[in-house]
Every structure is written in C-alpha cells, then in structure tokens.
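INFO  loader      accepted 1 record
INFO  loader      residues=333
INFO  predictor   begin
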Amino acid sequence: MMKPYRAGIKGTGSILPGKKLTNSQLESIVETSDEWIIKRTGIRERHILEDGVPLAKIAAEASVKAINDAGLNPADIELIIASTCTPDYLTPSLSCMVQRETGAKNAAALDVNAACTGFIYALQTGRQFIENGTYNNVLIVSAEALSRVTDFNDRKTCVLFGDGAGAVVLSKVDDETGVEEVFLGAVGDDGNVLTIPLLYASDIDVQNRNQGKKQVIWMDGSEVFTFASRIMSEATKKVLDNAGTEMEQVKYIFPHQANMRILQNAAKRLGVSMDRIYSNLEYTGNISSASIPVCLDEASNKGLLKKGDKIIMVAFGGGLTYGSALLTWSKQH
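INFO  predictor   done
INFO  writer      dumping tokens
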C-alpha cells in the first residue's frame, strides 16, 4: 500500500577542512610516491581537521548549511541522527553536540556507527520516523576525522583517509519524490579485517599495529577490496530489484568514496559508464560515512540534480556493513 507521504531530501550541506595533505607531502612522511598512490587509489589529496578543532564543529557547520538549504530553522528539526566512527567523545554523543552547536533545541538526538555505511543506515532510520508520522523534519549528519585514528607510519592505510562532514535534512514529501527503497546488510563474521580499537584490543589487533599505536585503523586491504568490489554491485542490483526499477532509470550512482579501482570495478559489474558514477575521491580521500552526503551536496550545488531524478547511494564499511538506497530527488534547485 502506498504511504500518503515519503521522506525526501530537502536540504544538503557539507564542510571539508581547509588544511590539506597532498601526496607529495606524504612522500616526506612515509615511503610512498604520488604516482603509486594515484595508480592504486585515485587519490591526490585529502582534507585534515586541525589539531584542537572538535569534529562536532564541522558537523554543526554542515548541519546549519543543510537546515538553511531546506528553508528551515534549527527549531524545526525534531530528530538529529549523527553517523561517525571517530567521535570526539563517547558521551556526549556527536548528535547531542550538534544539537548544542546548532541550537536545534526541539530535537531528540542519537548516533549511529556503521562505519562507512553509516549514512545509509542513518537515512533508513530517519526515513521511518517520517513515514510513520512521528516527525516531519530529521537532520542526518555524517562526520569523520579519520586522520585522528591513522598511523602515518603505516603506508598501507595513511594514503587513504581524510576528514569531512556532510548533512541532509529529511522532510515529509507528498509529491512522489523521496526515499523509495533501502537495503541494509552486515557480515559480522568478517569484522576483523578492518578494525579501530577503543577500550579493548585483542592480541592480534596489537600485533597488527606498530608498537604503541593501539587506537589506530588497521585493514586487510586485499580482503576489504574483494568484499567491496562484490558488494557494491550486489547491493545496487538488490535495491533496484526490490523497487522494481531498471538501471536505465537511474541518473547517478553516489558510491562511498574508498578507492577508484573499487568504483571502476563496480561500474564494470553494473554495466554503467563512469560518467554516471559521481566521484570526488581525488581531492577528499576516504572520509567514511561523510563521503556520500558530501558528494550529494556538491552535485546539488553544481546543478547536476533536478527534482524527479532517480539516484542510488551505495556503501560498504567496517563491521563489515553494507547498504544501498534508491530515491527520487525532492529538492528544487
């Protein structure tokens, strides 16, 4: 049965920190080269949050942009869902800190951690609050400071990650736009191929890291690459099948920006050209759950998205998690 309304994206916002870390700068930190990084990843530079600046600051700035873009006031937001795997504090949560910084005093607040898939998980959570009539306006903000959990002596990971924040406002829409279908999944059995310890680390986790570097990211790159290459196309096909939609009807795919070879692999498996796969990886690196909403904001600001366009968002991440979403763009440019 068709619901009387859907949850649609009515506003977007993003922030990339001003400080940059280029491949040539990395050459002086660790044994690597600009040529090798570009060939293996497609990344040329990444943005880094300055020391002493809380992640909540850029999360709140991106949120204010999204709220303004939606034509709303902070007081109109009834729920804030923040996704992050690099929060400033375990408590207060990032969502509560964003509430404080934005003045969204009427909002409930919760955090989601599904690593790089966090935005898709948050979107599905927020969507349901709107569709069941609980709330009219939900703010979703995904913010990450992966540079703060990166060991810059580990050349396998330090070339990949950056920092940033992206936000969207989900609102009730009744014009046949909005979120149509979401598909979520997880493979917890394989979670040990990508880890960031916090209050506990197994003996294997300690052995996998440089001495004295317990709370940093470690990744089995080949295992993650294999998983990502398969799941990106599978999750995209699944959400299309569930919605009864053909790939030809989709204008753009917005994938998690992890590695250009993964995006190219997914495009090949899906039989779509790379010009339908939006990417900003070259100048952001992997910013985990923030990558998709940052891409959405960029594409919207460039005028690439028109009301009525169908798009797919698809991601994979630590956990392991994965997810995809099909929606019809609601925002008037």
